[in-house]
């Protein structure tokens, strides 16, 4: 078993994979149909793959099963050495309390976006029967987190790309029971998030608009192959040299969707904090500020639609 991990580790090191040992372990566990804890225990006890594939009753899996598992591992390693994202190979990724299904055509949610979600959760828990809108929803990571973590939340999610929408719909179906258990409601639609007609029935009613829009500057092509070659361009690039064009369109749409006193939470590039604060203030938002993620980089904007002033 240790030899299999070592072989994978060395191959991924040669390919320049940033976390070769971790990836080799995860890929082997997936190929063998066990979890990482079981694999680590087998490694600690110096067990072989054949021993790990022996079931609890002591009966050994068929030789063909073991051969297929090892073939699967070799295939996984070749794909990862080609810098295909680990999450695509495994077919899923964990995000906060969710296990999301992922594959080619959908943006892979990042850990830093979990801080964006937390800002949204904190805001919604202060509102009775809150209504939230998730613009540019992708895999559903943000909106589904809100729907499962905030009891009684009504969440409306919008995604324009058909392939990303397909993955978002799969994840919504997988979380249906969890959403129902906390008394929430989640609906996903295929539409342009910046279009004035999208969710126009909710104009002036949303307590929260939250978004992780495309924001990478057009000339800032990512150096990491997993991002540059695999993440959908539609989910990456912000439509202008500074990457702010699409985020500003989200600012415009959110101002209309929000109820007076409602909150916008929007992720942005680490270089865009001052520009996003300025853009929000220009559009009439108040108390606009940028917040840092766990790595200390500017990561997301919060801004409020002004509360209605009675004469």
Automatic annotation (TrEMBL):
<keyword id="KW-0949">S-adenosyl-L-methionine</keyword>
<dbReference type="Pfam" id="PF05175">
    <property type="entry name" value="MTS"/>
</dbReference>
<dbReference type="InterPro" id="IPR019874">
    <property type="entry name" value="RF_methyltr_PrmC"/>
</dbReference>
<dbReference type="InterPro" id="IPR040758">
    <property type="entry name" value="PrmC_N"/>
</dbReference>
<keyword id="KW-0489">Methyltransferase</keyword>
<dbReference type="InterPro" id="IPR004556">
    <property type="entry name" value="HemK-like"/>
</dbReference>
<keyword id="KW-0808">Transferase</keyword>
<dbReference type="InterPro" id="IPR050320">
    <property type="entry name" value="N5-glutamine_MTase"/>
</dbReference>
<feature type="domain" description="Release factor glutamine methyltransferase N-terminal">
    <location>
        <begin position="3"/>
        <end position="91"/>
    </location>
</feature>
<dbReference type="Pfam" id="PF17827">
    <property type="entry name" value="PrmC_N"/>
</dbReference>
<dbReference type="InterPro" id="IPR002052">
    <property type="entry name" value="DNA_methylase_N6_adenine_CS"/>
</dbReference>
<protein>
    <recommendedName>
        <fullName>peptide chain release factor N(5)-glutamine methyltransferase</fullName>
        <ecNumber>2.1.1.297</ecNumber>
    </recommendedName>
</protein>
<dbReference type="GO" id="GO:0102559">
    <property type="term" value="F:peptide chain release factor N(5)-glutamine methyltransferase activity"/>
</dbReference>
<feature type="domain" description="Methyltransferase small">
    <location>
        <begin position="132"/>
        <end position="216"/>
    </location>
</feature>
<dbReference type="InterPro" id="IPR007848">
    <property type="entry name" value="Small_mtfrase_dom"/>
</dbReference>
<dbReference type="InterPro" id="IPR029063">
    <property type="entry name" value="SAM-dependent_MTases_sf"/>
</dbReference>
<dbReference type="GO" id="GO:0032259">
    <property type="term" value="P:methylation"/>
</dbReference>
